[in-house]
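re: that chain from earlier
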Amino acid sequence: MSTATIRVAVIGCGRIAGHHCRSIAAVPGAELAAVCDLVADKARAYGEEFAVPWYTDYRAMLAADPAIDTVAVVTPSGMHHEHGVEMIDRWGKHVIMEKPTFMRPEQLIDAFARADARGTRIFPVFQNRYNRAVVRVRRAIQDGELGDIRIMSVRTRWCRPQRYYDLAPWRGTFSHDGGALTNQGIHHVDLLRHLGGEVRRVNATMRTLGAEIEVEDTVVATFTYGNDSVGNLEVTTAARPDDFEASLSIVGAKGLAQIGGIAVNELQVFTPDPAACADHSEDFSDCVYGNGHEKMYGDIVADLEGRAPYPVTRDDALASVRLLHAFYRSDEAGDWVAVDDPAQSTRLGRPNDAISDLYRTPA
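^ sequence. v structure.
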């Protein structure tokens, strides 16, 4: 009989699902109980690799193993709310929600309210917060080593050619994917807040330059914080022929910090202590997702055991999703917008039942 604190089932067996499975297997107190995907070959592959039952119907999976208490939702982003609230309402499960948590702020508010009513938990995934370089720079900001932030800069130059978007109908859509900022840039959007504090206003311009898709593959933006510090953001998946960098730099009153590498995994410049760069960098060449998921599952176990609260709160996740929407609202308005305006993007996360039907398990 299992003695694990959490028995996790993974629904959605795309590439990152394997990283979830490996992370769950590596964490004391966590156990991978089952995997599920509508495509049998995908579910079978992970089921056989990790020696767990596999299913093509998550309802059958949860009925067969009621001891599953937690579900990692790794389905297309536009399905997160629908799948998540069913796990909560019908099955009473805790939910681990891959980025961007939910496509719309209203969905996040609704899902957390449902979880409160059922006594379950939602754990948003922002694994780059665990990167050694990010942890060190955040500590430097909190301890005053860098001084007051003056400029925050993000630059993501990745490659997603047409064949990437052609892999599945949900890719490259506003309803289920979002563009370069929602899919690839969401971690940087989150880090703007995690490191710099709350963004006050944004001014963004979006373009589609490298693929035939409805969403943006390029965005350039400026923004301001409440303390008059400023920032700029450049995110593109139109770089060719490969991924080049995902970096974030901070100009402070006392020094400079630059986090770079393929996925903000290298502390490249740190003027308060240059020797810290080597100790706070990680090699992500084998996996661009890095090591954060494993640490995240450790925090989930600690939360459910009552030892320490999960570090990403409801309000924290909501603020990152609202900031994400502010960039889209600015592009839609062609002007500066206030992040705390409750308005939402008219495009991002809009309903599309024709696509949703492709990812719904038949009743």
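DSSP finds 13 helices and 14 strands in the chain.
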